[in-house]
Amino acid sequence: MKKIFLFILMLAGCTSKPGKTMHESTSTAVIGGADSMTSIVVADTCASLNGKVINESCNTEQKKAETSECVPYVPVYNQSEGMRIIEALSKAYGDNPNVIGDFIGSTRCPSFLEGHYFDGNTLVLQVRGDTLRARKILEEVSGSKAFSIEMMTDSTFSEKQLQGLMKELNRRYDALPKCRLKANMLSWGSTLHFIEVIFIRNTPEAREEFRRLLMDSPAIRFSGPEEPIRNNATGASEAYGISLYPEYTVYADTASTASFILMNGSNEAITCGEHYFITYEGKDGQWYELPINTFAVDIAYYVTPGSSRQFVAMLYPEINGNVSGRYRFFYEVSLESGENIRMMAEFRLTDNYEKAKRAEKTPIPKMTGGNYVEAPKEDEQAVYQVVEEMPEFPGGMPALVEFIRKNLRHDKAEKRERVIIQIVVDKEGNATNPVVLRSVNPTLDEEALRIVGIMPKWKPGRQRGKNKNVKFTIPIAFNP
């Protein structure tokens, strides 16, 4: 049996609370297959302070000389006194005095106090009106003078104002039907004095569409690429026995997706992910990046020799207005030796839709232990190892991890242990035929089998458009 190891990385767009800076956070969970482990990492990719990025890359030779690797630069601040002031104001003004920092806009908060944030070590309180009177009151309530006052004017926006705007923006977004604008919006959130909306394509038409359909406010700023970005990158379609193929060489220019197959015919395992980029050939003969959603769930696979995986890339035709011509899909893989290889597969888009409908799959060499394990067509009860669309737990891998964590009786284990269970997800989505592949002891094995027995229905695996019975390996991790 071939083994596919999974590493799942979730990238979420920044939607930080108004008045707070967009931040960087990381949390982890564990899941995996036989002889494998999956790490689920949730990372907020926006890191800023006062509108300035603080997670800087190495940008000087001195920094590079200090370490063999580029270590992100993050300033260290002592904000203990400011936090003590926030705690005092929370107790005095918060609707719930046990919640620290959530007092702006509360029923007990004075109307002149409209926000707070840190400028380095210093706590800044946003005040509207008489700042001298406000400072006196705030000093008495907090028992400290170690803060500064920012006087709000008609041309600046406070945390309180941004809270209201964000609430209304979210309400209007939820009520907006599925459309080009919603597909184009990557992320939005408040910084210190404005709301930032990030587009896949930040064109004048996109901004006008946002103002017309959602909100027209001077507090909103827009970012994202407006003009095409030149990118003449190249890659290898085959290297060390590793190959990348488009499933079809031709797609309609209105196609929302294009799919690709990565085959590992090398003698060592490779790691590959869902980070990718696409370029297209312009009329001038130069290549340009196709704008895509950069905030996405990243599921990376550790693929052993003889294995392969299918990948679906989004083309966003409603946003990009894709035209006929040559396109390139780039996908990076890493060898166990540490070498990184940029793979490339070329495909075409066409406005000849009949030609696109008649397009046949790219002929791909057969590979022992390859991706598709076909059963005889007449055997409807056959169990597949791998299919084009693998079974999926409701909500995906993160939901499966959470389901196991909540329902597992961890106290049955004396230390951290892991039982590996193999199931068959049948054509109706039922988790059936559980088998213990890696046993710890009878007690934990029984508990792991119990978890399988209470699972909800899965999304069945599919091969060539039909539901199939598919084996699936699940690690059950005990953390007493």
Strand-helix topology:
Blueprint: E1 4-12, E2 26-31, E3 38-44, E4 48-49, E5 52-53, H1 61-66, H2 80-93, E6 113-119, E7 122-127, H3 131-142, E8 147-151, H4 159-175, H5 180-184, E9 185-190, E10 195-199, H6 204-213, E11 220-223, E12 238-239, E13 242-246, E14 250-252, E15 257-264, E16 270-281, E17 287-289, E18 297-303, E19 308-314, H7 317-320, E20 325-335, E21 340-350, H8 353-358, E22 383-384, H9 397-407, E23 417-425, E24 431-438, H10 442-453, E25 461-463, E26 466-478
Parallel strand pairs: 1-3, 7-8, 10-11, 14-21, 22-26
Antiparallel strand pairs: 1-18, 2-3, 4-5, 6-7, 9-10, 12-13, 13-15, 15-19, 16-17, 16-18, 16-20, 20-21, 23-24, 23-26, 25-26
How does this model look, in words?
There is one protein chain. With 480 residues, this protein is of the alpha+beta class. It folds into 5 domains: 4-66, no CATH class; 80-151, no CATH class; 159-223, no CATH class; 238-358, Immunoglobulins (Immunoglobulin-like); 383-478, 2-Layer Sandwich (TolA/TonB C-terminal domain). The chain is built from 10 helices and 26 strands. Strands 1, 2, 3, 14, 16, 17, 18, 20 and 21 form a 9-stranded mixed beta sheet that branches. A hairpin with a 2-residue loop joins β6 (113-119) and β7 (122-127). The radius of gyration is 27 Å and the shape is globular. The chain starts with a strand and ends with a strand. The model is unreliable at 1-69 and 368-378 (pLDDT under 50).
Relevant terms:
single chain, 480 residues, alpha+beta, nine-stranded mixed sheet, five-stranded mixed sheet, 10 helices, 20% helix, globular, disordered N terminus
